[in-house]
Design brief:
alpha+beta; DNA polymerase, domain 1; three-stranded antiparallel beta sheet; 6 strands; 44% helix; elongated
């Protein structure tokens, strides 16, 4: 049952819920107070009341930080995702409470970041916001009627041109890499071009992972989570001794 009383020149409405918590609101006019009280009493009786109190008390920044510590920290790509989350936490949209994040605010975020980031990067950050909100709704029990990211169309990304490096460009790249202070750069490029290794696989590769007699390298914790052995081209086999 709602209680309505006049206090400090305004009409205060308080509705007690089953868990002994209260809903409350102040009105200038008593008619509006009575109307609001009846509306929310009806919703409570029908089980239709939408409790946004938690969503109004936590900001997107706080949610992202919790998602980073609880979920991202368990992923293989934690370092990269941690960087993205920390960067996102510095943006203006991260200061909004979850209940205040709307598709319109997200589209403005897209437009703003699109001035300094390519469409693919903007889409990845929007997806990060989306998965954190999904985490809040499904795992933290924070009520939100929907995920606002579902109503925002992703930016169109440029199509892959399927360009490959030609023989002249490869020779020029390898020649110039010999002048780099990073004495491993030339070999790293050759591992990528000749052997098809990913950047992360190249950076993790150690000398003890290479079988010089068989001209093979064993890769641990690859992108799909398993280990694999790759053959080394004659050019790589020659340069790995240098």
């Amino acid at each position: 049952m709602a209680s309505i009383r006049q206090r400090n020149g305004k009409w205060e409405v308080r509705i007690r819920r089953l868990n002994n918590s209260h809903l409350g609101k102040h009105f200038k006019d008593k008619t509006d107070a009575v109307k609001w009280a009846r509306e929310y009493e009806s919703k409570l009786e029908k089980g239709l009341y939408e409790d946004l109190s938690h969503a109004n008390s936590i900001s997107l920044r706080e949610l992202l930080q919790q998602y980073r510590d609880d979920v991202s920290s368990t992923k293989k790509g934690f370092t990269e995702e941690k960087y993205k989350i920390n960067k996102l936490c510095k943006s203006s949209i991260a200061s909004f409470k979850l209940a205040k994040i709307t598709p319109l605010k997200l589209r403005k975020f897209q437009e703003s970041w699109g001035l300094s980031h390519n469409p693919s990067t903007v889409n990845k950050y929007l997806t990060l916001i989306s998965v954190s909100i999904k985490y809040a709704r499904q795992m933290l029990g924070i009520y939100l009627p929907n995920n606002p990211c579902d109503f925002v169309k992703r930016l169109k990304e440029p199509e892959f041109l399927n360009e490959i490096i030609d023989e002249h460009e490869e020779k020029l790249l390898l020649t110039q890499s010999e002048h780099s202070k990073a004495n491993w750069l030339k070999l790293a490029i050759m591992l990528g071009i000749d052997c098809g290794l990913r950047k992360g696989e190249i950076l993790k590769l150690k000398r003890e992972d290479i079988d010089f007699s068989k001209a093979t390298a064993k890769l641990f914790e690859t992108k799909n989570g398993s280990s694999r052995v790759v053959g080394l081209s004659p050019e790589v086999s020659v340069n790995q001794y240098s």
